[in-house]
Amino acid sequence: MSDLPNCPKCHSEYTYEDGSLFVCPECAHEWTLEIETESSNDKKIVKDANGNVLNDGDSVTIIKDLKVKGSSSVIKIGTKVKSIRLVDGDHDIDCKIDGFGAMKLKSEFVKKV
């Protein structure tokens, strides 16, 4: 046969080309080679304000006064946050801040300790 890739879902060897897509006749999965290479590198790298790579469990410091939505309180600059957890989304850090509780932060407003 030709040198077409196997189906990434069911690993069938009977794939065929349909324009710019590859199609599997056994499971009806459609994909392109670009999607296949992106899925292998789907781990998102989160960086702080200084460009340092953040990992789960790191400690960070707030670099700007942040207003707490739905409250009149403010998280002050220099507040230390321990044991962060990285999540997907706009606010990519999930953490607990003493005196405030559970909070989601953007990585652009923190720096790694």
From TrEMBL:
Xref: InterPro entries: YjdM, YjdM_C, YjdM_N
Domain Protein YjdM N-terminal as annotated: residue spans: 4-32
A Pfam family reported for this protein in Swiss-Prot or TrEMBL: YjdM
All copies of domain Protein YjdM C-terminal, residue ranges: 46-113
Domain of life: Bacteria
Cross-referenced NCBIfam families: phnA
Record-stated family: Belongs to the YjdM family.
Protein name per the record: Protein YjdM
Organism of this sequence: Domibacillus mangrovi
Phylogenetic classification of the source organism: Bacteria, Bacillati, Bacillota, Bacilli, Bacillales
